[in-house]
Amino acid sequence: MRSMGRLLGACLVVLTGLAISSEPADAQGTLIDSIKKRGRMQVAFGTFVPWAVRDKQGNWMGFEIDVATKLSKDMGVELELLPTQWDGIIPGLIASKYDFIVGGLSITPARQEQIDFTAGYSTSGQGVAANKALAEKLNWPEGYNDDKVTFVCRRGVAACKTIAERWPKATLRQFDDDSIAYQEVINGNAHIIMASEPRPRFAVIQNPDKLFQPTKDYVTTGVEGMGVRKGNPEAIAYLNEWIGKNKTWLEERHTYWFKTRDWAGNAAN
C-alpha cells in the first residue's frame, strides 16, 4: 500500500507539471520574454484614419503602425499586424489572440476593469461632421437632441456611448465599418457622425459641399494607452519605460499624422 501511495504521488507530480506547462506562455514566464523567444510581436488594431489605414500599395500605414513598428524593432522581433473588429478587440486580447492592442485605445474605467493599460502615449478628442442639407440649421448642441436627428458612429468606440448619454432622444445607428458610417452622412441618410479627430475634420475638407462641423471643439478628450492582458506587470513596466524613452519621437509622429496631411497623398482612396 505504501508503494502504491508513492506511485500515485509521483504520478500526481508529473501530471501537475504537465498542467503547468500547458498554461499560456505569459503565465509560465514573462510576456516580454515569450515574445522575444518567439521572435514575433502580435499587435491588434482597428482601422481608423490616421491611426491605421491602407496605402496605395495595400500596406498598412498610420500613427499606430509607426508606434508598433518602432516598438518591435527596438525589441528586436518581427511585427505581426492583426487588424481586428473594434467591438471584439478587447475580448480577443483577453483570449490571448495577440500580445498587445496598439490602436488608439482610450483609457477608460470600464476598459480598465477588463485589461491593463500602459501610461498614455497619445491624446485624442472626439469631433463631429454633419450633413449640410440636413443639419446646418440645427443649433449645436441642444438642437441635435431630437428624435428626428440621426447620429452614426463606429460600433464599439467611445463616441457611441457619448452620443447615447448626451443626445438620448436622437436615433443612434452603429456600423462596423468607419467608411460606411461617414458615407451615410455624406449621402444624407444620417445627420451627423461623431468620431476621433482628425477624421471628422478631414471628411469636411474632402467633402466641403456636403459636410460641415457644427463645432470645431472636441466634444470629449481622451488619453490612449497600449492594452495588455491582466497579470503582466513586467510587460507594463517594459512598455512604460519604452514610452518614456521615446516621448519626443511619439510627439513628432503624432504631429505628423494628426496635424498635417502630408501623408494623405499615399493613402488608398
Q: Mind sketching the topology for me?
A:
Layout: H1 2-21, H2 25-28, H3 31-38, E1 40-45, E2 53-54, E3 60-61, H4 63-75, E4 78-83, H5 89-94, E5 100-101, H6 109-112, E6 116-117, E7 122-131, H7 132-135, E8 150-154, H8 158-166, E9 171-175, H9 178-186, E10 192-196, H10 199-206, E11 211-212, E12 220-224, E13 227-228, H11 233-245, H12 247-259
What do you see in this structure?
By secondary structure, the protein is α/β, with parallel strands linked by helices. It has helices spanning 2-21, 25-28, 31-38, 63-75, 89-94, 109-112, 132-135, 158-166, 178-186, 199-206, 233-245, 247-259; strands at residues 40-45, 53-54, 60-61, 78-83, 100-101, 116-117, 122-131, 150-154, 171-175, 192-196, 211-212, 220-224, 227-228. Strands 7, 8, 9, 10, 11 and 12 form a six-stranded mixed β-sheet that branches. It is globular and about 60 Å long. Residues 1-28 have low confidence and may be disordered.
Q: What does the largest sheet look like?
A: 6 strands, mixed
Mean pLDDT: 90
**Count of distinct strands:** 13
**Can you count the helices?**
12
Task: State the share of residues found in helices, binned by percent.
Answer: 40-55%
Whole-Å distance between the termini?
A: 77 Å
Order of helices and strands: HHHEEEHEHEHEEHEHEHEHEEEHH
Percent in strands: 15-25%
Enumerate the spans where pLDDT stays under 50 for 5 or more consecutive residues: 1-28
Judging from the principal axes of the Cα atoms, what is the shape? globular
Give the class from helix and strand content and strand pairing: alpha/beta
Q: Gyration radius, to the nearest Å?
A: 23 Å
